[in-house]
Automatic annotation (TrEMBL):
Entry's family note: Belongs to the glycosyl hydrolase 67 family.
Record protein name field: Alpha-glucuronidase
Pfam family, one: Glyco_hydro_67M
Keyword set, alphabetical order: Carbohydrate metabolism, Glycosidase, Hydrolase, Polysaccharide degradation, Xylan degradation
Originating organism: Micromonospora saelicesensis
InterPro entries referenced in this protein's UniProt entry, alphabetically: A-glucoronidase_C_sf (IPR037054), GH (IPR017853), Glyco_hydro_67_aGlcAse (IPR011395), Glyco_hydro_67_C (IPR011099), Glyco_hydro_67_cat (IPR011100), Hex-like_dom2 (IPR029018)
Superkingdom: Bacteria
Keyword Ligase in record: no
Domain annotation Glycosyl hydrolase family 67 catalytic: ranges: 166-481
Amino acid sequence: MNAEESVELEQLMFVEEPMDGDDPRVHPAWLPPEAFRSLGARRVLLHGEGLLVDTVLNEVSRACARYGGRVWHSPSWDVDVDLVLALRDAGELPNPSVEAARAAGEAALVELGDGGTLGDEGFVLARAGDVTAVLADAPAGLLYGLFHVVRLCAAAFDPARPPERHRPALRRRMLNHWDNVAVHPVMGQVERGYAGGSIFWQDGRPRGDLARVREYGRLLASCGVNAISVNNVNVARTEALLLTERLGDVAEIADALRPYGIRVHLSVSFAAPVLLGGLATADPLDEAVRAWWAATTRRVYDRIPDFGGYLVKADSEGQPGPFTYGRDHADGANLLAEALAPHGGVVHWRAFVYNHHQDWRDRSTDRARAAYDHFAPLDGRFRTNVVVQVKFGPVDFQTREPVSPVLAAMPATRLAVELQVTQEYTGQQRHVCHLGPWWSEVLGFAPWGPGGRTIADVVTGESAAGGGMVAVANVGDDLFWTGHPLAQANLYTFGRLAWDPRRDPTAILDEWITLTFPPSATADADLVRRTLHEIMDDSWRTYERYTAPLGVGFMVNPGDHYGPGVDGYEYTRWGTYHFADRDGVGVDRSRASGTGFAGQYPPYWAQVYESPETCPDELLLFFHHVPYGHVLHSGSTVIQHIYDTHFAGVEEVTAMRRKWQTLTGMIDPSVYERVAERLDEQVRCATEWRDQINTYFFRKSGVPDERGRDIY
C-alpha cells in the first residue's frame, strides 16, 4: 500500500489481522497503523545490529510497506534517505549525506553540553540538510528514538527543528500486574482488574497468546515502560510455583517481551523456602534459607538471563514476612537482595504494611501512620539493590490523599513511588478519570517546603540511581486493553511520566490523542482533539467532586470498592474511617489532639497540616475532625461544599456525555459506542454518589442546602 492510497477507518483504528487465527482483533491503542504514516512514507536507513535493532527494522519495514516508503539495513548502500537511525559505535557508511546527518547528531551532543554519552536508553535527534538523524549508544535507545519519531509525525522532518537529546530520568519504569495464575475465589483472575481476564494466565495455566503479550510489550516500549512483574503481589500457592517448577511459564513471557526491551520481574512469597523448598523456616538470618534463595535465584537467571528481580509484599494483609521470626523489613529485603546481587537483580519491597485488624473504637491507631512507623527507622540499613516501594499516599490509592511522608523520611534508601493505573478507587475504568494531573501533583510535591526538592527528585536520585516509578497495571483481555478506551490514556501517561516525571500531563494527553485518533483518520481532527480535552483534562477533579469529599477517602462499597457506601468501612477492621457524627466529620491526625500523623512530615508541612486554619481545603478531613459549619478557605462551609460539589460533579459528567455525543460519526464506531455506554454508567453512578452522600450528611448535620435543591 503506498502513501497515496486511502485506508478504511476501521482498518486504521484496529489491527488489520487477528494476532492469533482464532482470536478477535484488538484495538491498537496509541499505535494504530495510521500513526506511522509520516515515517512509513519516507526513505529510512537503519545502521546497527542487535535484537532491539531488529525490532526497529521490523517496525520501520511494516510502516514503509504500508505507506510506500523504503528501508535499508546497513552497511552496503549508498542511497538517498530522509531518516537515518544509527548506533553511534557502528562503522562508517559509504554515504556522504548519512554521515553528515550522523555528524550533525554528534555535534548536537557537544552543543548540548552532555559530555558525549547517551546511556543505554537515550538518543539524540538532529537535522542535517534534508536528513533527520536519530543516534543512540545502545539498541534500546534506538528503539525509543524510533517511537519518538512516530510521536512527532511530520514534525520530525521539519528542516527548522532544533537538535534534541532524550534520556529517561528514571532507570526503572515498572508496571506491577496483580494477575492471578489460578482464579482467586473472591478476586478472580485479576485482582482489581477492570478489563477482563489476564493476558498472561487463564484458569491456572499460561494463557498462551504470546502474540498479544508481544503487542503489549510494543505498547509499553512506545511510552517508555521497561519492566513488568507478571503476577499478583498476593502470592498464593499456584503463583509461588512460578519461582521454581513453573519458571518456564515466566520465561515464555520474558521471551515475548524481550524484543521490546521489557525486563520481567516476579512477585514471590517470603515463605517460599517453606512452601517450595521443604525447609522448616524462612528466617532471613538462617544460613539454610540464605543458601536456598541463592541457589533458586541462580536457577532463575540460568533460564532468564535478563530477569529483573523480585517484588515482595510481606507482613501485610496476611502475607508472610520477617515479623514471624522476630526480624524486620531490612532483614527480609536484604536476604533477597543478597541472592539477586551477583546477577544484577533488584528486590522491590513494598512499604504497604499496616494493622489490618484494627478496632474502630480505638482512635489512637492510625493506618496512615503505619508505613512511616515501620520503615523510617530502617533508613540506611537496606542494601543498594533494594528498592522500597512506597504508595504515593499513606492509605490506599484514594482519589485525594496527602503524599506519603515516607518519601521524605528515608534519604539513605532507594525509594520508588507506587501509583495505581488500574482505577480501583477512581471509577474502575467505567468512569472517565484521567489521572495524569493527580500524578503530576504528587511528583511535583516538595516535602521540605515550596521551592525545595520534589518527589520527582527523590525517585530520580543522583545520576538516575533512585528507585524509579511503579504502577499497578490496568490492562486485561478486553478488546480495548483497558475496558474503557479512554482509560488507555492513564497507561500511556504513566509511561511518559516515568520517562520524565516533570512533563506537563496536558501535553502528554495531547500526545496520546494525536496518536490514538490520528488527524488523517478522523472526520474533524480539531473537534475530536478539543472534545477529548474538554472531557478528560479535569475529569479527575470531577470524579473527586461527586465522591468522598475534602480528602476524607473511602466511603465506597466494601469488597468491590465501586459506588457509594458511606459507612461501608466505618465499623470494620481496615482502619479506613471518616468518624462522621451529628457535629462534624473527619479524622484528627494532628499532633496536638489526634494521632500525630501530621508530625511525620518535615517541619514546613507538619505545621501546615497541624491546624484546620492552614490545612489545604482538599485535605481538611484527612487531617482534622471539624464542624459542618467550619468555613473553608474557599469561603464555603464544609456542609455546603459537600452539597455544591456533588451537584456540580453530576452536572459535569452529564456535560461530558453530551460532548461525547458530538463525535458521532467522527471516529471509529466501536470506540464511540463503548465510550458512550461507559458514560451512561458514569452519569448513573455519579447521580447515586450525589444523592447518597448529600442525603447522608443532611441527615447527620440537619443543615439544609442553602440553594434548596433536592436532597432526599
